[in-house]
């Protein structure tokens, strides 16, 4: 009998109060370099919410505009500083509690996010989340290329990543937590879905049990 229960959490706006990538970049390069990079990428940045610019490549170009061909170890050090000193202030206590509830019930918690894995994996490991499905930066000889490696983990890509991750052993029950259009497909895949502002949190049940309807 398949009693696998998976809880998939979006990160930005769901677990956090605001966009973590913006906060990470501000912390990594400071306001002046952030502003210069924003000006360089302004047409693309404006085009993202209007549907003119692709989300993932625009994010990757912005990072490159701000930091250039940065070495991986330098960016990882910036990510570690961000996770330790800046990110905690952005986290929602109620959602951290929800993650802990799932873990206590024996559910597998997975982070599914369009933000870069370079800081998400550090944060996830610290709170016991072993699986992070997110956008990956492209590296060549240890240097950032200015591109993503693979697709931006947003919208339909979130479902593709989840399906690839669980392979031939899909969960009997999937919980999905999100806050925006980018989480729509993941929510539709789940038996229990929660989008911020649309409904109350779904009831929980132990692995092998049944949640209330």
UniProtKB/TrEMBL annotation:
Pfam families xref list: HAD
CDD domains recorded: HAD_PGPPase
PANTHER family in the cross-refs: HAD-IB FAMILY HYDROLASE, PHOSPHOSERINE PHOSPHATASE
Organism annotation: Paraburkholderia hiiakae
SUPFAM superfamilies found in the cross-reference section: HAD-like (SSF56784)
Protein's recorded name: Phosphatidylglycerophosphatase C
InterPro entries (UniProt xref): HAD-like_SerB, HAD-like_sf, HAD_hydro_SerB1, HAD_sf
